Amino acid sequence: AYLIYSRLLTYDQQGHLVNDLADKVETADNKEFLVTIKDGVKWHSGEDLSIDDIIFTFSLIQNPEYNSALRKNFSGVTLEKLGDKQLKFTLPSAYAPFPSLLTFGILPQNIWENVSPESAMLSELNLQAIGSGPYKFTSLLKSKSGELKEYRLEENPLYYGKKPFIQNLVFKFFPDINQAIAALNDGDVQGLSYLPLDQKRLLLAQNSLNFFSLGSTQINSLFLNQKSSKNLADHPVRLAIAQAINKEELVNSVFF
Predict the structure, then answer these.
(1) Fewest CB within a 10 Å sphere: which of 6, 49, 135, 175?
(2) pTM of the predicted model, to two decimals?
């Protein structure tokens, strides 16, 4: 989505929040945020991107019928059009990190306004997407059963920002990780988006590959239902179970 859709703000390679569609973001009290957008931004289809498209996208996020995962982030937030190039977000209370929430993709109103909430998730517009980002959709390939096999993007010549170094991107989809690894080993693809740790040993020519490990804040826990067992309701029993689990051995075996 980051390749196809523009956002008011985005993150650079160092993880810093930077302007995208926004030309500048101003606030005096961290409660009202004025956003001025860039001139000359166009959709992949050639039409001009406007303030109204941003307001429309924000209204979809706030509409409970669309069940947007971002809706809770903007609870109580209002958006006002101040002109052809400026918007004002008003928060119920001061919140300094609010600009970090303005990283949602902007949709073209003239294309999405006739799509009902019930059909939005299944709309072909999700695949044959039109945005204003650095890449635009060109084609896709599905299997006979309707599963996505290939998705192609090409450089957007109308892009307002820095031109991408790669002109064409092809995303290939596989039914399981084994077939994906086989494709990488055979040279049919140049990279994998996800590799289970215990499958790394199946990769050939590992010295010619770059591996990127992304850490995540995650806790794996075992919850004991004390209501279903009298024994589990006994604290010494639960303590014995906790002490009997060799956590160090688990870590060493799972993460090698």
Answers:
(1) 175
(2) 0.80
